[in-house]
Amino acid sequence: MQWQFWIIQTLNSVAFGGLLFLLSSGFSLIFGLMRIPNLAHGAFFMLGAYFGYTLLQLKLHFWLAAIVGGLGVGLIGIVMERFVLRRLAGNEQGQVLVTLGVAFIIADICLVVWTGDPMPLSAPPALRPPLRVGGFAFPTYRLVVLAIALFAALSRLFTTVFLLGAALAGIGGVLGGPILNAYPGLDTDMLPLALIVVILGGAGSLLGAFVGSFIVGFIYNFGIALVPDLAYFVLFLPMVLVLVFLPQGLFGRVQI
Questions:
Q1: Under a CB-based contact definition with an 8 Å cutoff, are residues 74 and 202 in contact?
Q2: Contact between 254 and 248 (Cβ < 8 Å)
Q3: Are the C-beta atoms of 150 and 18 separated by less than 8 Å?
Q4: What are the Cα distances from residue 199, in Å, to 28, 46, 134, 244, 247?
Q5: Least packed by Cβ within 10 Å: which of 72, 115, 195, 214?
């Protein structure tokens, strides 16, 4: 039925928005507070997904794999910040080039270690049965990912440290694995979405990242479902309008 399509797409958009928030909040706050344009953030997300796949293959519990995978990515982020980015303080052009180079390096390492085949991650067994409401089924796991994103939005711990920003991307990668899988190019698929969220919401604004994530989640899912040939046009158009009329973003601070 037609109404079922709209309900399911709405729920999918909300769930994807929550996952996107886990990625974009760290990116937004690292840039807003530390003024570091970390273009390796998408690679951190992808690396977290691969870490999660490997840890699950080692029979680690899913939620423990998410925490360990996130911390592993966070440690890599700390090493990059401490020994590379800190030496480039104030040199935004250098930081952009270095983080972009790190993203390419991580992508190549992932390709060598995990090959080019998609690596499916399984959701926890307890969350695999669908939730049935009003005659249609919706994946329970996606609702749990949304709940985790809402919890992260209420925690101000994520706003202070580069380690936690990178770890949040890594955890997002593990949690996103059962939905997106781990595959080469996942970083380049997710990073533009995070950039759009930051532009829409405003750099350094946790509320902006939260609202922007769900806006992009809805536009992305409905765009692909309704006008797949124009999906990227529909996705990037709001970003262009915000850049023209609200350069600081919806919730960013006006620079004086």
A1: no
A2: yes
A3: yes
A4: 9, 22, 37, 11, 8
A5: 115
Number of domains the chain is built from: 1
> Which pLDDT tens digit goes with each residue over 7-25?
778 888 888 888 888 888 7
In this structure, is residue 256 part of a structural domain?
A: no
Helices (H) and strands (E) in the chain, counts: 9, 2
Closest CA to 71 of 5, 196, 7, 164: 164
Structural domain for 186, as ranges: 2-245
3-state secondary structure of 17: helix
Buried b (16+ CB within 10 A) or exposed e, 180-203: bebbbebbeebbebbbbbbbbbbb
At residue 61 the predicted structure's pLDDT band, cuts being 50, 70 and 90, is: very high
**Average pLDDT, integer, range 218-246:** 85
Give the pLDDT of residue 224. Answer: 86
Residue 161: predicted pLDDT:
53
Please provide the distance, in angstroms rounded to a whole number, between the alpha carbons at the two ends of the chain.
Answer: 52
Contact 158, 165 (CB under 8 A): yes
Residue range 47-63: average pLDDT? Answer: 93
- By CB neighbour count within 10 A (0-12 exposed, 13-18 middle, 19+ buried), where does 254 fall? exposed
Q: At residue 36, what are phi and psi to the nearest 5 degrees? A: -110, 115
Taking only the tens place, the pLDDT of each residue in 76-135 is 988 888 888 888 887 888 888 999 999 999 999 999 999 889 888 888 888 888 877 666
In-domain check, residue 252: no
What is the average pLDDT across 215-227?
88
